[in-house]
Write a structure and sequence with these properties.
- This protein is mainly alpha-helical and 225 residues long.
- It has 9 helices and 2 strands.
- It starts with 12 loop residues before the first helix and ends with a helix.
């Protein structure tokens, strides 16, 4: 008589565990609609350009030694645009997951995006009220922090959450690259002379990076199928 257990059907437990892990990984991959999220965010970035251009305030006093530069379009366009974008991304993820008979884990990402949108809106409103009457020269690290809590910075922070939820190493690497471009910023020597268009190179580059990411993840998804 022996007390050794016999695997059901004579199968190796380690092989069963490996199959379960492989199945779990395939489920996580099938849940991903990364390309759609990046495409929506790229569209929001490009559509925001005319708003930022039209509502940009640039006013100089006297001999132009004191000037005010303010991107009011950030407040008039970006909060609503990002909230609608995160809602659209969440709906898409849920519909795709249900169509494949899976569960969706996109809610923490959407909630993070909403929270970051509220945070940057509050910060920019406070800055708009305070700094016109309290001019100040900022060190470089403050400018980097400002870019981090800007709409294009918070997009990257929220994508880090999505990469964690999806356990998507590719998205993590992409997001770190996007944040580098958005925060440094990297403009590849592309400049405009007019003050009202100085923001355009960076915003176009940010949107292009997101668009290229969407195309890349869409092509990678097709190859897996």
């Amino acid at each position: 008589m022996t007390t050794d257990s016999v695997p059901a059907g004579g199968r190796d437990p380690r092989r069963l565990l490996s199959e379960v892990r492989g199945l779990a990984r395939r489920v996580r991959v099938d849940q991903r609609v990364t390309w759609f999220a990046l495409l929506v965010l790229a569209a929001v970035t490009f559509v925001g350009i005319p708003f930022d251009r039209y509502f940009l305030v640039f006013h100089c006093v006297g001999d132009a030694t004191a000037c005010q530069f303010s991107r009011q379009g950030v407040l008039y366009y970006w909060p609503l645009a990002l909230l609608l974008a995160y809602a659209a991304i969440a709906v898409c993820y849920v519909r795709v997951a249900r169509a494949r008979g899976l569960g969706a884990r996109v809610l923490p990402y959407a909630l993070t995006g909403v929270a970051l949108t509220v945070l940057f809106t509050a910060a920019w409103v406070a800055a708009r009220l305070y700094f016109p009457t309290h001019p100040h020269r900022f060190p470089y690290w403050v400018l980097v922090l400002d870019r981090l809590i800007s709409p294009w910075g918070t997009i990257g922070v929220a994508l880090l959450v999505l990469a964690r939820l999806e356990r998507n190493v590719g998205l993590l690497v992409f997001t770190l690259g996007y944040l580098t471009v958005a925060l440094v910023p990297i403009d590849f020597g592309w400049h405009w002379d007019a003050f009202r268009t100085t923001f355009l190179p960076q915003q176009i580059i940010n949107g292009t990076v997101l668009l290229l990411g969407a195309i890349g993840f869409a092509l990678a998804g097709r190859q897996r199928r």
